[in-house]
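[INFO] parsing input record for DUF4430 domain-containing protein
[DEBUG] input buffer:
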Amino acid sequence: MARTTARGARRAALLITLVALGAPASAVAAPSEQRVRIEGATTTLYEGTLRTDGHAVQATSDTQSRRCDGTNNGAHAEPGPTPTAASDDAMRSVGMAFDGQWYSGFDDYFLLQFGPDREDPATNAYWGILVNGVYTSVGGCQYRLNPGDQTLWVYDAFSMRDLLRLDGPTGIGEPTADVEGGPTTATAQSSFVVGLHAPLVVKAVRNEATGDVGAPGSRAPAVGVRVSPVLTAANGVQTINEADPATATTGADGTATLRWSTPGWKRVKAWGTGVVRSNRLDVCVRNADGSGCGTPPADTTPKDPPPTTVPQPPVTSTGSGSLADAAGQAGATPVRLGATTISALRITTDGNPAALTGVRWALTGEPLRSWRIEYRDPTAAKPRWRTAARGTTQLSALLDLPAGRSADLRAVFRGAGATSTRTIGRVVVPLDERVRQVRISGARKRLRDPLAWRQTVTRLRRGATVRATLRAGRPIVVARADRRKAVIEVTAAGGRPQRLTVRGHADGRTVLTRARKRSRSGAVTIRVRSGTVLLDGLAVGP
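[DEBUG] output buffer:
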């Protein structure tokens, strides 16, 4: 499991479930078979395969439905099945539900509860998500699943516990990848047939994560863990029968030998102290004449979940990436490095409560060796590139960039034997209107706007004045559009006033209004002459 300290568990949980980082989905995704396992505090709440697709979901405490089809936050152009939608289907199929907190800036849920098991901040017990054994670098409504992927939700995911996988004599117990979004390393097989009193050798494997989201764990034989029978309730909830005399302990190579003296379907899982219980293996123990098993358990075959009654959410503008002042150069042309292709390289910004700029991309083929995101200030006399973030297998990055400025961004991707540097674009990083450096007087009111920078704006009416000291360059007024246009007057120290129009838009998008260029730093005053301005911040551009 992730080697995450208790102090950092909440931050890790947020990053793994949300990571910052959509166009309305009008098409309907085609259902595909998806494996789902939800490991709760003391029991396995769900384990099986469903035919599912992306669809609207609604947490029990939420007041409205949410899109959850992989197009969230612009993650993918086309809808498809997602871990959260598939897990919602899984919970509904067994008469349970999920709860979560919606983050508009990320267009995704932070999961709080599955069934009876709710997060416990007092003990740093949070839910974490993996696909094919790798912690995802985006949330469960942004991640688009491939057919046959294994979604795994783990309760208390950040308490230094390793994940267990239980393999049979052939194949591996459940899909496991070496890189986020990659294919499984071997064919998954979870059902076996064995004769009465005949030995069945199983192997327990530890998956120890690196602590980085999107990174694969290191796998090794799980020595000294136990393999025990599983009791399955009518609703499919599984409890390990730890006291069952049929329990076996794995040896130095991670293997254990099982035998049964009665025919029928047997179910086993691996478990132990300080680890997350494994997937389940189903074993048909038959008599010499082949009888004794009968019909396989119902949860071993793919099922169709009950139809969802959650209404499709209304189409709204997310404003995603509207602070990207010169975006779009990179996304149109894919980057090819040998057997690796990087595409959809773009900036995501709006509705970010932490004032971080997001960059994301898609990858197909072989994994990258490394990547880094660099930035520079285009208003500087001698702009130079600085590293803002670096990584290996992640498909997104959060950048803590200097506020009140513009920043040029580029990505450096390193594949097998080749490196490519690609321009991402220019982003405006607002000096938030709430900070001390921005002084506001006159008719004003602070409002919450989930799509605004840091999720608030200040409504300014005629006569209101804003003052701040800005760097040299062109002052930029960052505002959320009102339905009608407004007129502002911008005055720099020692300069003449300049009247500008803040455009109106019905969808409430972010609007950047630029004043004339200044050759030196100094005080800037903005006065509302007519209309209403929903101020989101100030910045400077070239």
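[INFO] The first strand starts at residue 32 and ends at 39.
[INFO] shutting down worker
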